[in-house]
């Protein structure tokens, strides 16, 4: 098990919760492949939901929903998700990218508490995009994968930060 997996593999999980299984990773990757053809729409859904549940983050972005700036931001979001989803079987390979992204987000004004809202918006988007194919099991896998990524990013950007217990 690599450094990234050791450090972040169990973040934000209950002590008895298992790590992502190979089957969950395969399901996440297969489901993301179904979202990629509608990437632009998925990004619009994501940001609309994010700005609804966390309006305080909208000023952190250039442009209004539907603007060319937000369309470009949506492309960046989907490209980043693709890197992460494709790297789930080797988290060490994506660790430097995740850490650099997290540190850039601090410069944009992102706070640790924003990560939960982003996760909520992501799950909402996947549910809307995948419909009935977004099963409770798939949702749990995505939530776990996002928890690992968010935990790694928060740790990289805010050393010493401790999440409040749920």
Architecture overview:
The protein has one domain: Globins (Globin-like), CATH 1.10.490.10. With 166 residues, the chain is mainly α. Helix 2 (22-35) packs across helix 7, helix 3 (39-53) crosses helix 6 (114-130) and helix 6 runs antiparallel to helix 7 (136-157). The protein is 67% helix and 0% strand. It is built from seven helices and no strands. Mean pLDDT is 87; it is low at 1-18. It starts with a helix and ends in a 9-residue tail after the last helix.
Quote the beta fraction.
under 5%
Structural category: mainly alpha
Spans where pLDDT lies below 50 across 5 or more residues: 1-18
Order of helices and strands: HHHHHHH
Name of the CATH superfamily? Globins
Average pLDDT: 87
Measured between the Cα atoms of the first and last residue, the distance is 28 Å
The geometry reads as: globular
Largest sheet: none
* CATH hierarchy: architecture: Orthogonal Bundle
Oligomer: single chain
Rg over alpha carbons: 15 Å
- What is the number of domains? 1
CATH topology (fold) name: Globin-like
Q: Helical element count? A: 7
Report the CATH C-level class. Mainly Alpha
- Number of extended strands: 0
How helical, in percent, are the residues?
55-70%
